[in-house]
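Notes from hallway chat w/ T.B., transcribed later so I don't forget. T.B. wanted the structure written out for a chain they're using in a teaching module, and asked if we could keep both sequence and structure tokens in one place. Agreed to drop them here.
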Amino acid sequence: MKNVKGVPQSRPLFRQVYDNILNRMERGEWRTDDKLPSIRMLAEELKVHRLTVFKAYRLLSEEGKVYVRDKSGYYVSADGVLSSELEEGSFVSSYTISNSLSDIHRIQAKYQFSQALIDPNLLPNIYLSDYVKKVFDLYPKVMGTYASIQGDDELRESLSQHFREHHRLQLSSEELLITSGAQQAINLIAQMMLRPMDTVLIERPTYSVAMDIFRRQGARLIPVLITPEGYDLVEVEALMREHKPRMFYMNPTHHNPTGYTVPAWQRKLLVELAERYHCLLVEDDPFRDMYFEEEPPLPLFAYDTEGWVIYISSFSKYIAPGLRICAVACRYPFMEQLIKAKSLADNGTPQLNQKIFLHYYTSPRLQRHLDKLRIALQVHKEIMEEELALAGWEWTAPKGGLNLWVKLPGDISADLLFRKSIEQSISFVPGEICDPLGELKSWIRLSFSFANEIDLREGMQRLTALSRTL
């Protein structure tokens, strides 16, 4: 893999081939004493040089995971697969089920700064319960019916109209798919698009779960630095030309974890680059409505005329997390493939959830509540920023979203701070797990949206005080 000047590189290519082979062995694709593909065959499959595959095989051989038979080839050794067998000889790979963010979220903490969700007390819960009752009156048989695989017709028509009016997205209801949250949408897209050793451009830093999903598919991740000014488009074009990526996964509006927003002029040029190099842009947009001053630029999808953008609009963060409603917009033939992938995943998002969301989201009262919610979130953000300023920590104030991306002072290790914080019932996200290269060890993501104002201030004071003892 050639170096692009000024671009941080991921693992050496032969190590990525090594990971791919080992992962497939652990999944049970190749078992003990099975013959592995020849160097030539595997190089052709993964579209790499034969020497790259040879170096990967040699490393596996040195570690005892494969063995060589003279003039016959490479075979899987007993140490090359997991020792813990399940029923019928199946294997479970720890690599395939990695989810660092989920591990953090399972930790119980009083001062919860790792969850990028809204404080439930800021949501109109009584109002939502009224709509639940209304839905049962309007659709008395709703519990006895499946939704269509693509999603409820009424909901898709309502959302397509909403996107046309508010985001200038030219799409029909047939170009929308309803999924059970954005994470499912990302997973379906990865299953549809990616094969082992395919290249994915991904922001640095980024949403860690997306990285876990792409790695599970065996993809190579190439980092693209995101800054308060957006991307270096010269770098992006060089990466597209050099690596011919299958897709570029991005979160350009109130970015997770940094809060940065990519300017409108870059969005239009990114779509042009995608068309030129046939690179699918996967635009994840869960925080668009959570802005503090002016509305953010239009989605990249608004500039797409050739079908090279898939737009993921999730409502789980701030409307009704329990409903898990997300809309995916794309053109055919991508839509047809996504519908097939969705049918294999769960055969359709629950009908009841969709009907509740339909009447809840489109109501004038909820739209008015969003204005109040933005004010409340800005107050939360300012409380966190006040405590960070007193401690001398560094960050760039976001114009929206739910997170602050914070540089720790001095040489404090985020990993050490995290371990000590958990002892005091404080949680946050270490920046290392958001980095495709795993090197951002002095950065952390702090979510200001979940804790109430009292716990937010008290928890931040405890966290900054703890850092001074390290």
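Follow-up for T.B.: Residues 65 and 80 are 4 Å apart (CA to CA). Might be a good example for the class.
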